[in-house]
Specification:
CATH superfamily: monomeric porin ompg
Radius of gyration: 18 Å
Order of helices and strands: HEEEEEEEEEEEEE
Strand order of the largest sheet: 1-2-3-4-5-6-7-8-11-12-13
Number of domains: 1
Strand content: over 45%
Distance between the termini: 32 Å
Number of strands: 13
CATH architecture: Beta Barrel
Oligomer: single chain
């Protein structure tokens, strides 16, 4: 099973790039805050995130996200989540119009150790999407995320680390209303970042994400604050 996981990841990293047709030379920016809380003496927890995305590094609003979920961890090797997301989307350029999207999602996570120091988390997500001016849609996402420690801090916990992940998105439907269609392949994200654990419960990451869609490629700067308590 472990060998199968390690074979699947390079296929995701390499395969989706063939869909791209046009490269956007302007960098975008995603600014993100993630929160995780495990309820004491319980298998339940909560997770949430707030994000602001810009078509450029600033000044051209692309998207805002508010997301929250209830988590359940029956055993250490599995964590499930059920949640809701609210999106506001803006077009690129000077137009001020926006559109909304509501999502319900279900996650299942499978963390595993790779060797003596590296960790790998598999996440499978199903989304039910209500996009403004479109028919109801679903989407399946699979992500494989590596965390590679580099240094230890004075308390023996992780200091600097590398975060690398790849995520592929597959649409459940191709017809989205009013005669419009999309492909089964929606997009692929390839991400790499340098992170630092400020404390046991607080981490900061600075990285870059390459997004490949059916028609385009775009790079985004990512700044993340990850808080657990």
């Amino acid at each position: 099973m472990k060998n199968a996981y390690l074979v699947l990841l390079p296929l995701l990293l390499f395969g989706a790039s063939t869909f791209a047709q046009e490269h956007d030379s302007k960098w975008g920016a995603w600014y993100m805050y993630f929160l995780n809380h495990q309820i004491q003496d319980s298998k339940f927890g909560i997770q949430a995130d707030a994000q602001y995305r810009d078509w450029q590094l600033g000044g051209d609003f692309q998207q805002s996200i508010l997301r929250g979920a209830l988590t359940y961890q029956p055993i250490p090797e599995i964590k499930a989540a059920f949640g809701y997301s609210y999106f506001v989307n803006g077009p690129e350029g000077n137009a001020k119009t926006t559109s909304m999207e509501h999502r319900i999602f279900q996650d299942i996570n499978f963390p595993q150790k790779v060797g003596s120091f590296m960790s790998l988390n598999h996440r499978l997500r199903l989304e039910e999407r209500w996009v403004e001016d479109q028919d109801f849609r679903t989407r399946v996402r699979y992500a494989a995320a590596f965390t590679i420690p580099i240094t230890k801090n004075e308390h023996g916990a992780t200091g600097f680390y590398l975060a690398i992940f790849d995520e592929i998105f597959i649409n459940g439907q191709t017809h989205i209303g009013n005669g419009r269609e999309v492909g089964l392949f929606d997009r692929n994200w390839l991400y790499g970042a340098l992170g630092y654990a400020l404390s046991k419960n607080l981490k900061v990451q600075l990285g870059a994400l390459n997004q490949v869609t059916e028609n385009s490629v775009k790079n985004n700067l990512q700044v993340s604050l990850i808080h657990s308590f």
